[in-house]
UniProtKB/TrEMBL annotation:
Signal peptide: none annotated. Keywords: Kinase, Magnesium, Metal-binding, Transferase. The keyword Magnesium applies. Residues 31-77 form the PEP-utilising enzyme mobile domain. This is PEP-binding protein. Residues 198-371 form the PEP-utilising enzyme C-terminal domain. Its cofactor is Mg(2+). Belongs to the PEP-utilizing enzyme family. It comes from Streptomyces polygonati.
Length: 407
């Protein structure tokens, strides 16, 4: 077995081109290990964030767990399922050749060259996509250019993973459970706010837990089995049907206001998985948000692209272009399915045209707009898209931009 090389496909990179570690084939966290799993799922969150790298047998470039790894700078290498059984003991990952050597290898620890990294000036009003509190601290400890990061964006479901919360179980309980969930989210947000620099803010993407992901983090609440969860009951559609979530949100907002006063305004809310302006208006009314609470919108479906001007007119405080989902819906290529990886193209002309339409419509309406970009795509977007108000990037890739500019 020693010296055998297993060829794979790199889903996310890191800061080293070669690294070595002990394989962890359990679901339990083992600091500094190489986590080996058939696929990445929410139930593996603690094991993933403790790992030095991850090797899996399935998944795409921009799945939710892969996005957490990208944000933390944890490399993810996909190999054939049949090769997973051979990954035991000490292994060495060669990220540049996208391969794994089983057995001893003296090359561990080489650095990746950082050529082609843009300047922070190119990012405009930069937004860091985070998975937990550590990501804020990582950015804000990166030197003077950390202040160029105007906001931090987090999904509520990622906040729940980091805090050990089970949102659907809480929301399916009684009023006390619902209120406890709202207070727990507020507690976590207060902790995050303490780590911000004076002019920074936090954007919370409201709960968007697909049924397949929910099943992995739910013990009590019933979860429907859907034939295609990606296109199922989640995002704005689910929020519109949940009075329990509305009540929890009000507890969360009230707790923030009580504890933080005017600093509660540094937490902004954003609507996920939105079709059009009608859903936006309906959801704002359903959530019974006070008039002084801004609500932004995620543009990540073709329907929302064409409704951008109307969504701005309906009162969206700002727009976030979620290119990862936009790509899969424009091209009908599941971003988590490696079998259609060649069809999932983040620079496809149709995708570029859609993003261009959103930016132009938002700028015409005077609504701030930010575009998510993978590090590998940023230069391409900078060259070919009209200038948005800012770009969103995962923590590790954004930190590279900050550190490179100060070296």
């Amino acid at each position: 077995m020693n010296g055998r090389r297993i060829q794979g496909f790199l889903l996310t990179g890191g800061t080293q081109s070669v690294l070595r570690g002990t394989c962890n084939r359990t679901r339990s966290p083992l600091d500094g290990s190489i986590l080996v799993a058939p696929s990445l799922e929410a139930g593996l969150y603690e094991a993933i964030v403790a790992a030095r790298a991850v090797v899996c047998g399935a998944g795409g470039l921009t799945g939710h767990m892969q996005s957490i790894c990208r944000g933390r700078g944890i490399p993810v290498l996909r190999v054939d399922q049949a090769d997973l059984a051979d990954l035991v003991g000490e292994v060495t990952l060669h990220l540049e050749s996208q391969s794994i050597v089983v057995g001893s290898d003296p090359r561990a620890g080489e650095r990746i060259a950082g050529d082609g990294i843009p300047s922070p000036d190119d990012l405009g009003s930069a937004c860091a996509v985070i998975a937990d509190l550590q990501d804020i601290r990582t950015i804000n400890s990166s030197g003077p250019n950390a202040k160029r990061v105007e906001s931090f964006f987090i999904r509520e479901e990622f906040l729940c993973l980091a805090a050990g919360l089970r949102p659907l179980d809480s929301l399916d309980g009684g009023p006390a459970d619902i209120a406890a969930y709202g207070r727990a989210v507020a507690d976590r947000l207060c902790t995050y706010l303490e780590a911000l620099l004076p002019d920074q803010r936090l954007v919370l993407r409201l709960l968007d837990l697909r049924s397949d992901h929910a099943a992995g983090v739910t013990e009590l609440a019933p979860v429907a089995v859907e034939p295609n969860p990606e296109l199922g009951l989640h995002g704005a559609r689910w929020l519109l049907g949940s009075t329990a979530y509305r009540d929890a949100l009000h507890v969360m907002l009230g707790s923030l206001r009580e504890r933080l006063g005017d600093d509660a305004d540094r937490v902004h809310l954003s609507v996920p998985f939105l079709n059009d302006e009608e859903e936006f208006v309906q959801l704002r009314a359903h959530l019974e948000l006070p008039a002084d609470v801004p609500l932004s919108a995620f543009i990540e479906m073709p329907a929302a692209v064409h409704a951008t001007a109307a969504i701005c007119a309906a009162g969206a405080s700002e727009l976030f272009v979620g290119t990862k989902d936009l790509v899969q819906f424009y091209l009908a290529a599941d971003r988590s399915n490696h079998l259609v990886a060649d069809s999932y193209q983040t620079r496809h002309p149709a995708v570029m045209d859609g993003v261009r339409r959103v930016v132009e419509a938002a700028r015409a309406a005077g609504t701030p707009v930010r575009v998510f970009a993978l590090g590998a795509d940023l230069a391409h977007y900078l060259e070919r898209l009209p200038t948005p108000d800012g770009y969103m990037m995962c923590t590790a890739e954004l930190q590279q931009v900050i550190l490179r500019s100060q070296s």
